[in-house]
Write a structure and sequence with these properties.
By secondary structure, the chain is α/β, with parallel strands linked by helices. The protein is built from 12 helices and 15 strands. Strands 3, 4, 5, 6, 7, 14 and 15 form a 7-stranded mixed beta sheet that branches. Strands 10-9-8-11-12-13 form a 6-stranded parallel beta sheet, sandwiched between helices. Strands 1-2 form a two-stranded antiparallel ribbon. One of its GO terms (molecular function) is zinc ion binding.
Length: 342
C-alpha cells in the first residue's frame, strides 16, 4: 500500500509500505480522509519524532477487515477512531487526567493516518471507535478528533455567561473554539492571527473583533476593545511562544489562560509573576482528548452545531502531503483546514 512517510524536515516520501495485518479484536480501515493537524505540522517542522514515521491522527474511513472477537463493528462500516487510549485505572485516570496516563501515548494506530490502510488496535476499537452517521461526510468527520480536543480543554475552564474571550490563532482550532464558546453564551469573542485571510474567514463564526498582530499590539488592542479591563479567558491556539506572555497580559484579574498548543522545549520567556498572586490568574494546559468527548463531538458536527464545511479550504491527495504542509505554513496560500484523501 502507499503512505506518505516523514523522514526529515523537508523530506516526505510517497512510497510503498507493508499493508498491516490485524489480530484479535482489531480492524483494518481504508482511509477515506485525514485532516492535517497543527501537531502534525509542528512535528514535521521541528522533527520532534523518531523517523521514518507515518503521521496523521485525524483519520476516518471504512472497515475492510474485522478480526476475531470484534462484535460491535463489521466490514463496510464508516468509522471514526482515535489514536490514544488511557488505562482508566491509574492514579491519573482516577483523577480524570486521562491524557497524562502512562499508557496513553504508548497506544497508537498503525501506521498513522497518512496511509491507505490503518490497523486499529483492540483497545482503540473498544474505547474510541464510533460509526459515523450517514448524514456526516468523511471530510466533516475528520473534525471529530480536533473538536474533541477542544471540548476536553473547555472542561478545564470556568466559563460564565457573558465572558469576554480571546482566541489566539484563527486556524482550525481557533475556528472550533470560536463556535464552542459562542454556544456556551459568552459575551464577546476576539480572535488574533497574522493572516488577514484567516481573520476574515473566521468572521463567519460571529466574532466580535479581529486583531492582526503584524499590524497591532495585541495587548493594546484588547485593552482598547475592553475599556482597559482585559478578557476573562484567553485561549492560546497557535504554537508561538510569545503568545503565552501576551495572553497573561490580556486577561483581567481572575482571568484564565488555556495553553492549547505545543511550544519548542528550548523556549524561554519572561512572565510577570505578580499577576499570579495579586491578580489570581490561572494558566491551564490541555493536551489531546479522551474517549469521553468523541460521541459528543461527532453529534455536534452531525447536528450542525459545529459547521465543519466552512472551515475546510483545501482537499489534497496523499501524494501531496508535503505540498499540504507547505501550504499550511505559507501565509499567502490562504488556507484554514486541509484534508488529505487517498
Amino acid at each position: 500500500m502507499k503512505a506518505a512517510v516523514y523522514y526529515d524536515i523537508g523530506d516526505i516520501r510517497y512510497e510503498e509500505v507493508d499493508k498491516p495485518a490485524i489480530g484479535f479484536g482489531e480492524v483494518l480501515v481504508k482511509m477515506e480522509a485525514c485532516g492535517l493537524c497543527g501537531t502534525d505540522i509542528h512535528k514535521m517542522l521541528h522533527k520532534t519524532v523518531d523517523t521514518p514515521v507515518v503521521l496523521g491522527h485525524e483519520a476516518v474511513g471504512k472497515i475492510v477487515e474485522v478480526g476475531d472477537g470484534v462484535e460491535k463493528f463489521k466490514v463496510g462500516d464508516r468509522v471514526f477512531f482515535a489514536h490514544h487510549v488511557p488505562c482508566f485505572t491509574c492514579e491519573y485516570c482516577i483523577r480524570e487526567k486521562y491524557t497524562l496516563c502512562n499508557q496513553f501515548k504508548e497506544t497508537n494506530i498503525h501506521p498513522g493516518g497518512f496511509s491507505e490502510y490503518i490497523r486499529v488496535p483492540r483497545l482503540n476499537v473498544e474505547n474510541t471507535m464510533h460509526i459515523i452517521p450517514e448524514s456526516l461526510s468523511y471530510m466533516e468527520a475528520t473534525l471529530i478528533e480536533p473538536l474533541s480536543c477542544c471540548l476536553y480543554g473547555l472542561k478545564k475552564l470556568n466559563i460564565r455567561y457573558g465572558d469576554k474571550v480571546l482566541i489566539m490563532g484563527a486556524g482550525q482550532v481557533g475556528a472550533l473554539f470560536c463556535q464552542l464558546v459562542k454556544s456556551l453564551g459568552v459575551g464577546e469573542v476576539f480572535v488574533s492571527d497574522i493572516s488577514d485571510y484567516k481573520l476574515e474567514k473566521i468572521k463567519d463564526f460571529g466574532v466580535s473583533g479581529t486583531i492582526n498582530v503584524f499590524e497591532e499590539n495585541i495587548v493594546d488592542s484588547i485593552n482598547k476593545l475592553t475599556n482597559n479591563k482585559g478578557v476573562n479567558i484567553a485561549i492560546v491556539a497557535a504554537g508561538v511562544p510569545s503568545l503565552l506572555k501576551d495572553a497573561i497580559n490580556c486577561v483581567d484579574r481572575g482571568g484564565q489562560v488555556l495553553v492549547f498548543s505545543p511550544f519548542n522545549s528550548e523556549t524561554l520567556m519572561e512572565i510577570d509573576g505578580d499577576k499570579f498572586f495579586n491578580d489570581e490568574i490561572s494558566v491551564i494546559g490541555s493536551y489531546s482528548s479522551t474517549p469521553y468527548e468523541y460521541d459528543i463531538g461527532m453529534n455536534m458536527i452531525a447536528n450542525k452545531e459545529i459547521d465543519g464545511n466552512k472551515m475546510i479550504t483545501h482537499v489534497l491527495k496523499l501524494s501531496e502531503l508535503e505540498k499540504a504542509l507547505n501550504m499550511s505554513t505559507d501565509i499567502d496560500e490562504n488556507s484554514m483546514k486541509i484534508i488529505i484523501e487517498p
